[in-house]
């Protein structure tokens, strides 16, 4: 049996990742492709609960390095589960991954190299679909500003780092997320189906984030 594809959907807050990833799993299942959704941070685990409290309470004081490593630990504690699911042929549609970890911490001014180091060895996604929206669209979405990091300045910095990833990473693809939900959905779905077929046809083994070849500083001009 061939493994499932590991798909990540990235983008700034309120760009539609949550609703799209939920619908994508349904649409894939309708096409008889086994699929499950995951999200990072995974707020159900104990690290996830600390993270969730930190995000909800803007007065919560936690050192930047410490919270960065908690987000990373939250990914590491899910590695075995992800491998098991992928090995059993399930395609994982994951809402955010370490790219968000690096983008949000680097947007605070932390070093990109430092931020990436604890992520090395994690599974590397087969495809990262970057939902790119205009900042005006983002600000008009309900709920924007509720959690820590949901400020225009922070989100613009994060968006620039995603742009850098999309230029330098071979597995990234930009999706124009300013159009209607259904159009965006169709675009995402087509890309995922293509990835699932590529993984199946090539019998691809797991990929790991071994080291970062593109040593360019993503934080430049941020
Ligand atoms: N976030 C997310 C990080 O700062 N580091 C990470 O590693 C991850 C995965 O958490 N503003 C930030 C991005 C979001 C916030 O995510 C909560 P979500 O997808 O809104 O639950
Ligand atoms: Mg959010």
From TrEMBL:
<dbReference type="GO" id="GO:0005524">
    <property type="term" value="F:ATP binding"/>
</dbReference>
<keyword id="KW-0067">ATP-binding</keyword>
<dbReference type="GO" id="GO:0006233">
    <property type="term" value="P:dTDP biosynthetic process"/>
</dbReference>
<dbReference type="Pfam" id="PF02223">
    <property type="entry name" value="Thymidylate_kin"/>
</dbReference>
<dbReference type="InterPro" id="IPR018095">
    <property type="entry name" value="Thymidylate_kin_CS"/>
</dbReference>
<dbReference type="InterPro" id="IPR039430">
    <property type="entry name" value="Thymidylate_kin-like_dom"/>
</dbReference>
<comment type="similarity">
    <text>Belongs to the thymidylate kinase family.</text>
</comment>
<dbReference type="GO" id="GO:0004550">
    <property type="term" value="F:nucleoside diphosphate kinase activity"/>
</dbReference>
<dbReference type="InterPro" id="IPR027417">
    <property type="entry name" value="P-loop_NTPase"/>
</dbReference>
<protein>
    <recommendedName>
        <fullName>Thymidylate kinase</fullName>
        <ecNumber>2.7.4.9</ecNumber>
    </recommendedName>
</protein>
<dbReference type="GO" id="GO:0006235">
    <property type="term" value="P:dTTP biosynthetic process"/>
</dbReference>
<dbReference type="GO" id="GO:0005634">
    <property type="term" value="C:nucleus"/>
</dbReference>
<dbReference type="GO" id="GO:0004798">
    <property type="term" value="F:dTMP kinase activity"/>
</dbReference>
<feature type="domain" description="Thymidylate kinase-like">
    <location>
        <begin position="9"/>
        <end position="187"/>
    </location>
</feature>
<keyword id="KW-0545">Nucleotide biosynthesis</keyword>
<comment type="pathway">
    <text>Pyrimidine metabolism; dTTP biosynthesis.</text>
</comment>
<keyword id="KW-0547">Nucleotide-binding</keyword>
<dbReference type="GO" id="GO:0005829">
    <property type="term" value="C:cytosol"/>
</dbReference>
<keyword id="KW-0808">Transferase</keyword>
<dbReference type="GO" id="GO:0006227">
    <property type="term" value="P:dUDP biosynthetic process"/>
</dbReference>
<dbReference type="GO" id="GO:0005739">
    <property type="term" value="C:mitochondrion"/>
</dbReference>
<dbReference type="InterPro" id="IPR018094">
    <property type="entry name" value="Thymidylate_kinase"/>
</dbReference>
<keyword id="KW-0418">Kinase</keyword>
């Amino acid at each position: 049996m061939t493994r499932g594809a590991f798909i990540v959907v990235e983008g700034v807050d309120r760009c539609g990742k949550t609703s799209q990833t939920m619908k994508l799993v349904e649409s894939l299942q309708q096409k008889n492709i086994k699929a499950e959704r995951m999200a990072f941070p995974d707020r159900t685990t104990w690290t996830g609960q600390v993270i969730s409290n930190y995000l909800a309470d803007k007065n919560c004081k936690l050192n930047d390095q410490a919270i960065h490593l908690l987000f990373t630990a939250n990914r590491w504690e899910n590695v075995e589960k992800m491998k098991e699911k992928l090995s059993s042929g399930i395609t994982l549609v994951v809402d955010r991954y370490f790219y968000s970890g690096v983008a949000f911490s680097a947007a605070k001014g932390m070093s990109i190299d430092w931020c990436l180091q604890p992520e090395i060895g994690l599974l590397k996604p087969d495809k990262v679909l970057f939902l790119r929206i205009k900042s005006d669209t983002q600000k008009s979405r309900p709920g924007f500003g509720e959690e820590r990091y949901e400020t225009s300045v922070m989100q613009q910095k994060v968006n620039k780092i995603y742009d850098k990833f999309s230029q330098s990473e071979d597995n990234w693809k930009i999706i124009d997320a300013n159009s209607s939900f259904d159009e965006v959905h169709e675009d995402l779905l087509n890309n995922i189906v293509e990835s699932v077929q590529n993984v199946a046809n090539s019998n691809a083994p797991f990929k790991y984030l071994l080291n970062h070849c593109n040593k360019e500083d993503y934080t430049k001009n941020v």
